[in-house]
Amino acid sequence: MQEQHRPLSIKGLTVAYQKKPVLQNITFDIPEGKLIGIVGPNGAGKSTLIKAALGLIPRLTGDVSIYGKPYREQRKLVGYVPQRESVDWDFPTSALDVVMMGRYGHLGWFKRPGSKERQIALECLEKVGMADFAGRQISQLSGGQQQRIFLARALAQDARLYFMDEPFVGVDAATEKAIITLLNELKKQGKTVLVVHHDLSTVKEYFDWVMLLNVKLMGIGPADELFTKENLQRTYGGRLTLLNRSDDAIFVSAR
Ligand SMILES: Nc1ncnc2c1ncn2[C@@H]1O[C@H](COP(=O)(O)OP(=O)(O)OP(=O)(O)O)[C@@H](O)[C@H]1O
Ligand SMILES: [Mg+2]
């Protein structure tokens, strides 16, 4: 019965685009309250895994359950920060509106967001250091600022399980720090966060668990045990260049 209450449990998931499988027979579940890095080369299926878990794309086979039930029954418990390139940034809406969208799941039918929702959204903007930009059109913000707005939206959702697709891409060092502080805050509140991450040099520092993915699941578990040279070479194949410095390898150009 314990397993039923896992934040995310996936069994035998296969996804194909035009008959070409991009995820093959993926099975795993994750414990609550961990920061989990999803690692793998470009095209490994990382974004696809998240989209399939959220029912945004059809699966060929497999079951996904979130706290023991299908996603459609658990929407309120799940927050999603999409990969930046996949978002249409031209839609005419303010930063505050984008964050308010995170609150819709909490409102009943026909209810419009009121001053309480607005207050929550403003607090979330504050948390990501973007309160001064509340009224700004989302298209008129820089890439890193847009990223912060989407994080604020995820925070506003007050979910228990978060999926974040490359939140660190294209952000400066200060924003990266702000994001990692936020992730740790979420963890302290007992939330579970899955984060697609490309910078192998920070995986062990940022995450408790790591998922190694390349079409197949190459491993999932505590980062200390799994994040080894051998496992990374298996996951990235020839695309990984290793600079060895004693037993602690520095990983570069994992593309
Ligand atoms: N809509 C689509 N139609 C057809 N093929 C797709 C589609 N979306 C993704 N793919 C293919 O599926 C595979 C997995 O893509 P996915 O975006 O999940 O990779 P990823 O691991 O997130 O890569 P990246 O690190 O570049 O973000 C790739 O080979 C990609 O070309
Ligand atoms: Mg991706």
UniProtKB/TrEMBL annotation:
GO molecular function: ATP binding; ATP hydrolysis activity
Top-level lineage group: Bacteria
The keyword Transport appears for this protein: yes
This protein's record includes keyword Mitochondrion: no
Keywords: ATP-binding, Nucleotide-binding, Transport
Listed SMART domains: AAA (SM00382)
Similarity remark: Belongs to the ABC transporter superfamily.
Name of the featured protein: Manganese ABC transporter ATP-binding protein
Organism: Paenibacillus naphthalenovorans
Upper classification of the organism: Bacteria, Bacillati, Bacillota, Bacilli, Bacillales
